[in-house]
Amino acid sequence: MNYQYLLYSEKEKTGYISLNRPEKRNALSRALLEELTDLLNKIGAEKRVNVVVVKGIGKIFSAGHDLKEVSDGGPQDVLQLFQTCFGTMRAIREMPQPVIAQVHGVATAAGCQLVAACDLAVAAEDALFATPGVKIGLFCTTPAVFLSRNVGRKKALEMLLTGEFMPAKDALVYGLVNRVVPPGELEEATQKLAATIARHSPSAVAVGKRAFYRQLNMEDFQALNYATEVISLNSTTEDAREGIRAFLEKREPEWTGR
Fold this sequence. Notes:
The structure is a single chain. The protein is an alpha/beta fold. The protein folds into two domains: 6-198, Alpha-Beta Complex (2-enoyl-CoA Hydratase, Chain A, domain 1); 202-248, Lyase 2-enoyl-coa Hydratase, Chain  A, domain 2 (Orthogonal Bundle), CATH 1.10.12. Helix content is 50%, strand content 15%. It has eleven helices and nine strands. It has helices spanning 30-46, 67-72, 75-94, 110-117, 141-148, 153-162, 168-174, 186-198, 202-215, 220-234, 238-248, and strands spanning 6-11, 14-19, 51-56, 99-103, 106-108, 120-124, 128-130, 166-167, 179-181. Strand 2 (14-19), helix 1 and strand 3 (51-56) form a beta-alpha-beta unit. The longest helix is centred in the N-terminal third of the chain and has 20 residues, at 75-94. The radius of gyration is 19 Å and the shape is globular. The two termini are 26 Å apart.
């Protein structure tokens, strides 16, 4: 897979996607987002890896959208840029593998949105997060969607209305990231989390990821009814039967992904 703005590698059932525009602070241009969507869809379809990590090359994770594209583009151009970003966020949500953001430096605006859209996130202790669009007259309306689904309503609005940075320690407290580690341990900690997930049945993880997001906005017992159907069907898969047998026989399971 050859891309202009991304690097991709695979190791031990984990795929590593690196945003590769360090000279532009890994700005999410339309071209980069198109590549990212294409790559995510391919990874999801090929199922060669069980987990995906998204990280940035250079000093920061991502500064968000390429503002030159926003400034120079006409209304339809800008709409297409944001619709392309919509496609990337949807690809993350709909692919069967969990996606982990590995965050260093800063993640601002759409970069913060990307972190929030990922299923999990690990951040360096000195990482910073912000939705600063309000400072330039362009409110971070699209980043607000996933931000407000990660952190509490008032904290999300505080970030959106002030545009100020949130340090990693607060991002952990408010739920934007799962783990915060010293900068020198970021890669190892992310790999360890990915490896833990990658050991599990890929079919079970895919079923679980899809069901988790579908039940989130349901009423409690509507969600429980849906989850009951999902777990009942899940129990008939080859991996579920193998996992139960392995547990009873006190051995490691051998997953088939079915």
